[in-house]
Amino acid sequence: MRVRPEPECEGELVGLLKRYRDALNYSVKKIIEKRATSLSKAHALLYQELKEAFYLPSRIAMDCYREALSIAKSWLSK
């Protein structure tokens, strides 16, 4: 199934996706740098920063650092 956003919302959605991508890359680097491999450490390290610096809504910020944590853990285990 294909879902297409309303034309007036398309730019906003693309902007959110770009900010999410940038926030995810930033989060993976920060988690690896600080070795914050637990959910509570990742939350303390990134939640406010993702909301304020990348203008992500709360739920999206939480999803972002959780995904980054998963990526970082898999990368660190190699």
Q: How would you describe the overall organization of this protein?
A:
The chain has three helices and no strands. It has a domain at 35-78. It is 79% helix and 0% strand. The chain is elongated and about 40 Å long. Helix 1 (7-34) crosses helix 2 and helix 2 (39-53) packs across helix 3 (58-76). By secondary structure, the chain is mainly alpha-helical. The protein has helices at residues 7-34, 39-53, 58-76.
* Quantity of strands, as a count: 0
Report the principal-axis shape: elongated
* Low-pLDDT runs: none
Query: How large a portion of the residues is in β-strands, by DSSP E?
Result: under 5%
Order of helices and strands: HHH
Helix content: over 70%
Give the topology, please.
Blueprint lengths: L6 H28 L4 H15 L4 H19 L2
Helix pairs in contact: 1-2, 1-3, 2-3
Features:
single chain; 78 residues; mainly alpha
In summary, what is this structure?
The chain is an all-alpha fold and 78 residues long. Helices cover 79% and strands 0% of the residues. The termini are far apart.
